[in-house]
Amino acid sequence: MRPEPLSETCPGRAALWLWPGQALYVGPSLELDVHSGSVSCLAVGVDTEFTVRLEDGSRQVLRTALVAARVRHRVVAPRGRTAFCYLDPASARERACRRMMSGSAELALRHEREAELLRLAATMDGGTPIEAIRRWLDLAAPDDRAEAVDGRIRQALRMLAEGAGRPLAAEKAAAEVGLSVSRFLRLFRAQTGTTFRRYRLWARMLRVATLLDTWPDLSTAAVEAGFASPSHFSSAFHSMFGLQPSRLLAEQPVIKACQ
Question: Which of the residues in the chain have pLDDT under 50?
Fold first, then answer.
């Protein structure tokens, strides 16, 4: 059973915001074990420095770092708040964030807007207006794609959002919008910044977040959102974010699904 929620005005309350292709957590350090996530992660030491340790034994102590997807690592943070911004590695936002940092393909260091990111993150919690959260995300990882989205892709996005709990194959989506599968998949990635398959997974994660407001427990929400079983959801969540959903929910965060 999910812990009883606290008031959203509780100062310093941990929070998780989810969009298609990105997520942002701000709250106590989650004491992550060594892991390799399926998405890139921008870590921000809101209150103090943290240490990033890679599998080869190298380590960096800093306030901002972007760890690439599938790189085994551990973030060790002392007591205090940390922000983890998860970015789909195929997205325009991830590429933009990487360009604003130095370092290697595995570990990019010291965001060029670090001071402003730290200042704004220090004020963010579960009661922060979504407009302020979007401004932080745009500062950390601006989306450099054109605003206009092809009408056929908008239709596919609606299908994914409205049918997140039901299987939707790329072949069916392509047929619905009148494109060949290969053309549809190329256009979808160009327009959304990520692949159809990965966007579909994010859509299901968003559906879980939305359902948690009304469904009695995480297991029920996961199955309703289209995951084959609670263990399937838990495995996908761990692969994406590097921790079990139960560990996140132990912090009793505000969870908001955004579009």
Answer: 1-11
Helix/strand/coil for 38: coil
Return d(Cα 114, Cα 18) in angstroms, integer.
22
Residues 187 and 167: their CA atoms lie apart, in Å, by 21
Q: In this structure, are residues 59 and 100 in contact, taking their beta carbons and an 8 Å threshold? A: no
φ, ψ for residue 224, nearest 5 deg? -60, -30
Enter the tokens of residue 239: 């692969």
Q: Provide the β-strand partners of residue 18.
A: 23, 257
Q: Is 10 exposed, middle or buried (0-12, 13-18, 19+ CB in 10 A)?
A: middle
Helix axes 181-192 and 170-177, enclosed angle (nearest 10)? 90
Does this model's pTM top 0.85? Answer: no
Query: Running DSSP on this structure, what letter comes out for residue 237?
Result: H
pLDDT in tens, 153-191: 989 988 887 776 677 899 999 999 999 999 999 999 888
Q: Residue 236 and residue 232: Cα distance in Å, rounded? A: 6
Judge whether 39 and 236 are in contact, CB under 8 Å.
Answer: no
Q: Of 112, 107, 102, 120, nearest to 141 (Cα)? A: 112
> How many Cα atoms within 13 Å fall on the side-chain side of residue 239?
11
CA 47/CA 94 separation, integer angstroms = 24
Distance (Å, whole) CA 63 – CA 53: 14
Residue 35 gets which letter from DSSP?
B
What digits encode the pLDDT tens for the residues 57-80? 899 999 999 999 888 898 988 878
d(C-alpha 61, C-alpha 51), whole Å: 4
